[in-house]
Amino acid sequence: MKEIGAFEAKNKFGTLLDWVEGGEEVVITRHGKAVARLVSVQEKFDRTKARQAAANIAVRRKGMSLGELEIKDLINEGRS
Question: Which of 54, 60, 71, 80 sees the fewest Cβ atoms within 10 Å?
Fold first, then answer.
């Protein structure tokens, strides 16, 4: 992982893209604090895997219960 200041990142954006394209992750800082992370996009979004994951979650959720708890009670509890 590389780290670079915002001003320098602005001036060397092409270089940053080269780094990211090569698999490097770049953290951009402002006044020494991390404010952004530049990473490459995944090659391909796998819809089949995403659908299978959603189906797995749905199957597991069917067997779960809140018991005597009600969703509205949990929401109200979080608001107080």
Answer: 80
Say if residues 66 and 77 touch (Cβ distance below 8 Å).
no
| CA–CA distance, 3 with 60 (Å, rounded to integer) | 41
d(CA 34, CA 11): 18
> What are the two backbone dihedrals, phi and then psi, of residue 49, each rounded to the nearest 5 degrees?
-65, -40
Asked whether the beta carbons of 21 and 40 are under 8 A apart, the reply is yes
Q: Which letter does DSSP use for residue 40 in this model?
A: P
**9 near 28, Cβ under 8 Å?**
yes
Tens-place pLDDT, residues 10-24: 999 999 999 998 889
